[in-house]
Q: What sequence folds into this?
């Protein structure tokens, strides 16, 4: 069985050594870097399965670096490691493409659980959408799941990781019912109240993208899920 690869970017040498050694003992292959100046080479050559990314880094901050990573590999799970505790920082982290956020100081047990969770979610997402073609035609729109892009009559929208996951699930259930709980489990891993409210926000955003075309509609089925209607 091949080892899962972790790209770990952290400039604190003591913490980096502890994390790297622990992950390697647990069977992960770890590439540690002190900053993200050669991030493109790291992603393309090492081909990580998940990225652990400190926010306060020299030369380029973690949020900016996450945006670069998303342009290279839109599906790579990113877990931020940071001492920042403000809500605005949390929102900024997810907006820049982060999948999870772990505050310092953290326990290795929690880090391992979050790593395994992101790897599982990544596999679930791939399994759930693997039947989709490289491009999905939705009337005058074209969705490119692998590129996280939605081509509209007025231009191309670069989708976030969550938006692409949700739209992929909707497309896989075009003109049929998508269970809300199933969607939450696949995209977030649980159907908690917090994640449920997040889903509502993303659904509103995706609805907005299709608003100019009355023939494409995301119908909410209260207590059940969604019906993604695409008329011919």
A:
């Amino acid at each position: 069985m091949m080892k899962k690869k972790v790209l770990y970017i952290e400039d604190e040498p003591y913490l980096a050594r502890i994390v790297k050694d622990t992950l390697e003992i647990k069977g992960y292959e770890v590439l540690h870097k002190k900053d993200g100046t050669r991030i493109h080479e790291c992603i393309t050559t090492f081909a990580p399965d998940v990225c652990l990314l400190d926010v306060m880094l020299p030369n380029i901050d973690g949020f900016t670096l996450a945006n670069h990573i998303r342009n290279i590999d839109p599906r790579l799970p990113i877990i931020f490691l940071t001492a920042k505790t403000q809500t605005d920082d949390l929102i900024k982290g997810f907006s820049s493409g982060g999948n999870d956020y772990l505050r310092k100081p953290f326990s290795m047990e929690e880090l391992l659980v979050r790593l395994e969770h992101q790897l599982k979610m990544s596999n679930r997402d791939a399994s759930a959408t693997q039947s989709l073609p490289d491009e999905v035609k939705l009337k005058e729109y074209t969705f490119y799941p692998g590129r996280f892009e939605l081509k509209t009559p007025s231009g191309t929208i670069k989708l976030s990781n969550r938006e692409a996951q949700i739209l992929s699930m909707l497309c896989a259930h075009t003109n049929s019912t998508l269970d809300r709980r199933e969607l939450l489990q696949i995209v977030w891993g649980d159907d908690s109240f917090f994640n449920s409210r997040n889903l509502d926000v993303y659904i509103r955003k995706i609805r907005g993208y299709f608003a100019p075309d009355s023939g494409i509609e995301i119908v909410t089925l209260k207590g059940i899920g969604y019906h993604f209607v695409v008329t011919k």
